[in-house]
Prior knowledge:
- By secondary structure, the protein is of the alpha+beta class.
- The chain has 2 domains: 17-272, L-amino peptidase D-ALA esterase/amidase, CATH 3.60.70.12; 280-400, ArgJ beta chain, C-terminal domain (Ubiquitin-like (UB roll), Roll).
- Helices cover 33% and strands 25% of the residues.
- The protein has 11 helices and 15 strands.
- The strands form 3 sheets. A 6-stranded mixed sheet has the order 13-12-11-14-10-15. Strands 3-9-8-7-6 form a 5-stranded mixed sheet, sandwiched between helices. Strands 1-2-4-5 form a 4-stranded mixed sheet, sandwiched between helices.
- The two termini are 21 Å apart.
Amino acid sequence: xxxxxxxxxxxxxxxxxxxxxxxxxxxxxxxxxxxxxxxxxxxxxxxxxxxxxxxxxxxxxxxxxxxxxxxxxxxxxxxxxxxxxxxxxxxxxxxxxxxxxxxxxxxxxxxxxxxxxxxxxxxxxxxxxxxxxxxxxxxxxxxxxxxxxxxxxxxxxxxxxxxxxxxxxxxxxxxxxxxxxxxxxxxxxxxxxxxxxxxxxxxxxxxxxxxxxxxxxxxxxxxxxxxxxxxxxxxxxxxxxxxxxxxxxxxxxxxxxxxxxxxxxxxxxxxxxxxxxxxxxxxxxxxxxxxxxxxxxxxxxxxxxxxxxxxxxxxxxxxxxxxxxxxxxxxxxxxxxxxxxxxxxxxxxxxxxxxxxxxxxxxxxxxxxxxxxxxxxxxxxxxxxxxxxxxxxxxxxxxxxxxx
Length: 404
């Protein structure tokens, strides 16, 4: 169940970008599970990767290749993470890049690999190599619509979004796609995201734009608190529109706002399609001393299994929220200054239940598909928002049966 998501998101073509898909048979015969993204010569690229110490082989190789050369192709497979595979995994990722390079006429270092799926299994290199020609033949500017479903694992719907931004030199386009539904708490979950624009942006400026955009979006979501070995978010700028975006300009601010909005939409889509999710939950923490403190409270509430199961049941067991706030690591918290809200209903203040609290009113709000928990700490002016979902029986089934 994807909460409030379209089955077919609109994704606009981006000049200088072509995408092709193929069925490599990595997970299921006949299923398109390989994506090739081609970037025009001279494109710039920025990326943010997982901080998991057991990061996957393709993460290592993608970093190496980005440092060694410009990037022309992104190769993405689903069904196998190529993580926990040691030296063989590194060799396999490089072999796949070399196969694309031979057939596309570029250097192997100009190909970046990305993988998602089961951890600890050898990558079926030959299947990928055999499928690369089909992916090349299928390259098209309109390929986003086929590519977004081809990178999914336990997701139920493709996730994509586009923006058009009017700048002083003309209009530019941003389009992105993402996958992820479980093992989600990015720390840059099994999350991959690819965003491209036809704007002309220097690499250092692109990196300066991507990192904060990720921190305000993909690093503010959690389905289950698990950070994957394979997380990656890529931003490519082809320059094909001829519209430059100089750092520090008004155009840069407008582009940044569009990028932030697009990343936030993709990030929330991951939570809305969380494994077994029936509720989309916003945790908004206000009046903290600093943003880190606000994030700590928000994530503690968002990742509490007891809070998440209460939301699944539609049970206004608000004591679970209160307890999570109390164990968020703020040793000098004055509980008498804390207030907790479910949407517009105050459920706790002054150290206990709000005087006007009514169980039936709280239950009505807990039963909504989308609900906001607001926490006022009474300690300062900093704030942070995290997006999460509930835990259902289906989440346990999906993850118990993931490899069967």
